[in-house]
Amino acid sequence: MFLKAIAAAAWVIAFAVLYTRAWDQHNRDRRWSTEANNRLIYFLEAAGVFVLPEALATVLFIIPWVRNFLEKANWKILYALTWWFQSRTFVGRGLREGIVDNVKYSLFWAVLKITRIQFKWHEFFTHTNRLAVGLMWAPVVLIYLMDLQIWYTIFSAFVGALVGLFSHLGEIRNVDQLRLRFQFFSSALQFNLLPRSSCSRRGGRCGASSTTRSTG
Question: Which positions, given as ranges, span the membrane (predicted)?
Answer without folding.
Answer: 46-66, 150-169
